[in-house]
Specification:
511 residues, binds zinc ion
């Protein structure tokens, strides 16, 4: 979830190339006019400093600082400073996010002009033709008007002062950065169940791992694939090819981190960037989820019930426009439990949105693959995984140690997660659940009204549950494996303890 749940960063010295930077103090409300520029012929740099205050009263979400870039600039350096406040409740107040657009455009959806984003994760960055700070896109330093974008978050009175310094470095044209995206498929794979983590962060946004470490940890977690989902940027797409191994598929994605909830675009072409500068009331979500689908990807609503303002899902719990919902985000918690309860109620009402689970891991103390989604795909490829997740052909687990098989059969016909068993209302369907690698658990087959059958796992962690259900009274069945010997997850609002989830399936539909 993050991106504003990091600890406060102390005021640091600015990245100022050259002395004597002239500045101006904006009034209480910021006016997007650049401060005086200072030019340093000797060092071949030119600096522009902007200052202002966000008071939090009527402050728009996005502010643009225009920077005139003349010909001959080989690198742009940006540093900024402000003081945020840690609430101690998992998020910070008075955060100012930052990013950059080039002269190709900075309007809503102007992907061509997007040059990077670091949110509140770092206080300086640089962009040149041959390299850029993670989160930013290397490329041409085109002459024209660039824009630093500032995004004030959770500003409380009396507000927060800020200062941004842009340093233009003149020099000869540098070598061109060559992106090395990961392959979009793993050769020699066929139909099968593939384990993956659909939601991960590296140093390309507010994560701690390098891309190389992420690949190592994903392999150690027993994954077949993962989706690269940095907050609001796609800079990592251009480096995965350097780290991909022949047995691990890395799928390009982005965590679209809006002010009204987060969603994942997964299965994007390398470098495709999806805009995030809208709130639910702007009515623009569908434009961008449609764009993701047109690009061959899918849209997943993230951590929908996390109790953090601006991070929980404010676009509506019908998940309109979404292809899937992340019911399980990281270690099992109350909001995950609530997400499953709500999702089950929607199933009762005849509305199905496929469930996924992922770790949203930002650092090595948050295991990759806790949770994970195990997908039945035709091949281990981005295209096949997108189709399979959209169809609900998947189940969720806390780790690769857990294995599960869930089928409904009628005569010679056998179907699994996300599929429909062709049957008449008078038929009895046989439902089989087999679990392994889950000691101390209860495995249950769940129908519309609740558990239909269950068994405790044995000392080796195995359980088999078989039951017959009347198709006419049971439009769907699904499975859950919950831990009996762990700490119950207590929900004071609902008054019932919830056992921690170890695995769960998407439904099988009957009739
Ligand atoms: Zn998030
Ligand atoms: Zn995330």
């Amino acid at each position: 979830m993050c991106e504003h749940s990091h600890p406060p960063v102390d005021r640091r010295s600015l990245l100022l190339a050259g002395a004597g930077v002239a500045t101006y103090a904006a009034a209480a409300a910021f006016e997007p006019v650049p401060a005086a520029a200072s030019s340093h012929r000797a060092s071949r740099t030119q600096s522009h400093t902007f200052r202002g205050t966000f008071t939090g009263v009527g402050t728009p979400d996005w502010h643009y600082l225009p920077v005139r870039v003349p010909r001959g600039v080989s690198e742009i350096q940006v540093g900024y400073d402000y003081t945020s406040t840690n609430t101690g409740a998992g998020f910070s107040l008075n955060v100012i996010d930052i990013g950059m657009f080039d002269p190709s455009g900075h309007g809503l959806g102007d992907a061509a002009g997007f040059r990077g984003w670091s949110g509140g994760a770092r206080r300086s960055f640089q962009i040149s033709r041959e390299s850029a700070t993670p989160g930013y896109l290397p490329g041409e330093i085109t002459a024209g008007t660039w824009h630093v974008i500032l995004g004030p978050v959770a500003i409380v009175p009396p507000g927060v002062d800020w200062e941004v310094t842009v340093t233009l470095v003149f020099g000869r044209r540098r070598r061109r950065f060559r992106p090395t995206p990961a392959p979009r498929r793993v050769a020699g794979t066929g139909p099968g169940w593939y384990r993956g983590d659909l939601h991960l962060h590296t140093v390309h946004s507010d994560g701690k791992r390098t891309p190389e470490e992420m690949v190592q940890h994903a392999r150690e977690a027993g994954l077949d694939f993962f989706v690269s989902t940095e907050h609001n940027t796609v800079s990592a797409h251009g480096v995965w090819g350097r780290h991909a191994t022949p047995d691990l598929l890395i799928v390009n994605g982005e965590e679209i981190t809006t002010r009204g909830g987060h969603w994942i675009a997964a299965g994007l072409p390398a470098g495709a960037w999806i805009d995030w500068r809208y709130r639910p009331e702007d009515g623009r979500l569908a434009q961008f989820t449609d764009q993701v689908r047109a690009l061959g990807g899918l849209a997943i609503a993230c951590h929908p019930w996390v109790p953090i303002p601006g991070t929980k899902w404010d676009f509506g719990y019908d998940y309109a426009g979404m292809d899937a919902v992340e019911l399980w985000n990281g270690p099992w918690t109350l909001d995950d439990n609530h997400a499953v309860q709500h999702w089950h109620a929607e199933l009762l009402a005849g509305r199905f949105i496929p469930a996924v689970g992922s770790s949203d891991s930002h650092s090595p103390d948050q295991p990759v693959g806790q949770a994970q989604t195990i997908v039945h795909a035709e091949t281990l490829s981005a295209t096949a995984l997108v189709s399979a997740v959209k169809a609900g052909r998947s189940w969720l687990a806390e780790s690769s140690a857990v294995d599960l098989s869930f089928t409904a059969t009628l005569g010679a016909q056998s179907v699994s997660c996300g599929e429909r068993l062709a049957a008449a209302p008078t038929d009895l369907a046989d439902v089989h659940l087999t679990v392994a690698g889950a000691p101390g658990c209860v495995a249950q087959v769940i129908g519309p009204a609740g558990p239909l059958a269950g068994a405790l796992t044995d000392a080796s962690g195995q359980a088999n549950v078989t039951t017959s259900v009347p198709v006419g009274a049971t439009p769907f069945v699904r499975a859950e494996v919950r831990r009996l010997d762990g700490e119950p997850v207590v929900n004071p609002l609902e008054g019932v303890p919830g056992l921690a989830m170890v695995a769960m399936t998407n439904p099988v539909f009957l009739g």
